[in-house]
Amino acid sequence: MPAFTRRDLLKSSLFGGAAIAATTHVAAAPIKGAAKNGGDFDVIVLGCGVAGLVTAIEAKNNGAQVALLEKMDRPAGNAICALGGFCAWGSRHQKALGIKDSAEEFYTAMMDISAGRADPELTRVYTENIPGDTDWLEKEFKIPFGKPRTAAYPRLNRVCSIDGEGVTGGANVVFKLLEAAKKLGVQFFWEHKAVELLTNDCGEVTGVIAQTPVDKRKFSAKGGVAICTGGFSANQEMTDKYIGGWASRLALRGSPYTTGENISLCMPLYAKFVNMDQFHTGPIVSETHVNPNEILNSYNGIIIDVHGKRFVDESSTYVIKSLECARQTLENRAWVIVDSKCKALAKVTRRFKLLNTTFYQANSIEELCKLIKAPAEVVLRNVKRYNDGIKNNTLMDMNPPCTYKNPIPLANGPFYAFPFEGGMTATFGGPLINSKAEVQNNELRSIPGLYAAGNAAGGLFFRNYIGGAQFGGATVFGRIAGREMAARAKGKKA
């Protein structure tokens, strides 16, 4: 696998405009005629992201013959774009720092951040398995976990940043897992897009039909099929249907190839879909794909739209700020204005420069307004209200209110303006799974032989999630799916 840098990734077809424009034309047009035999396996995994690779590796380690089908010619899911946070309690990194944490505290935090709407059983399974699975990733694949981040509730000191070692942290995880899977003997089929799940007369999933650039191929599996294709964040028709038309204003933060196979494949089998209107959003500058999350989390300054108006409580999380940017501005474009006392300046300016992303600096607010082409009188009025609110303890009286706990006046030049858009990271909706990663039907019965993991599965997340929990969920339920399918295949052989 080539050693892509993040800049290389951004310049490649994966993130290019042409790639995004071609999202609906990923697979070749179906070719008439019977599908050719692609092979007989114990386990079939769909999708070459973290969930898919973990599933394939675990199944292989448990004695199964595994085929992994990926619709693109390389790994191209959301993990490639991810900075690489990994959410876990009980890791050796927590212990090394003397951080006290517990399963119950972690479970409570996971449920709290979902407003109590995450599936309790799945959340409990995540909680129970994540310490061991973190150790497994680190020991078996040399995943370079850093020290836990110091952050506010509910993260506390639970999220380790994965060193990208020249690429994004997420891409590094994928490349290391891919290398390991190849060494184990997992068979990879690139440019094989699953278009239909096969079932027998008893309703058991027995394989899949895949579309290749030249023909259709039928793959059989004794132990089952695992859907690890991600969600539907890059499928505008689905986001319009399940989330709402306004969501089309959101920029795409992740892969342009997460186009909803988890929905289209499972729908004919009457799978139960949950949380279909739920997704994660975050800040992005779509032209360069830079992530300005630190400046939005700095709790400094004010946020204005392109017309100079405030539209959100600056003390909100970056998720809410990004969401409201798309909801409340037709342009889905806003500015964060801070002064020289902002502690996040050094890191953010460095990142913007690295990715050739424009930001502005000026000695006065008036000069800054000229650079960002915002009406100075409106911006100056909002800056004065903000500074007066700090002085008079009336920030709560602003519209919308500002609830900074320790506000800092915008008074020390130079002043800076950083752009951002609301972007969709990933969708949370999909076929409901149980504790064994089995897909459930509308009667809440398991569909025999059908499994899902990662963002292809529904139930684990609602509203929001602790940073790094998507990688964690992909790992936990990918391993479970791999073990379950391998055991099922052995039972079929007996």
Q: Quick one: CATH class of the largest domain?
A: Alpha Beta
State the CATH topology of the largest domain.
Answer: FAD/NAD(P)-binding domain
CATH superfamily of the largest domain: FAD/NAD(P)-binding domain
For the sheet with most strands, the description reads: 8 strands, mixed
**Residue share in helices?**
25-40%
What's the architecture of the largest domain in CATH terms? 3-Layer(bba) Sandwich
Number of domains: 2
Kindly estimate the percentage of residues that lie in beta strands according to DSSP: 15-25%
Radius of gyration from CA coordinates? 23 Å
Give the mean pLDDT.
Answer: 91
| General form | elongated
> Which stretches of 5+ consecutive residues score pLDDT under 50?
1-31
Number of helices: 15
In whole angstroms, the N-to-C terminal distance is 38 Å
Which structural class matches the secondary elements? Answer: alpha/beta
Number of distinct beta strands: 19
Question: Which properties best describe this structure?
Answer:
494 residues, alpha/beta, FAD/NAD(P)-binding domain, Flavocytochrome C3, Chain A, domain 1, 2 domains, 8-stranded mixed beta sheet, 6-stranded mixed beta sheet, 15 helices, elongated, disordered N terminus
Give a brief rundown of this model.
With about 500 residues, the chain is an alpha/beta fold. The chain is built from 15 helices and 19 strands. The protein has two domains: about 5-80 and about 165-275 and about 430-494, 3-Layer(bba) Sandwich (FAD/NAD(P)-binding domain); about 280-425, Succinate dehydrogenase/fumarate reductase flavoprotein, catalytic domain (Flavocytochrome C3, Chain A, domain 1, Alpha-Beta Complex).
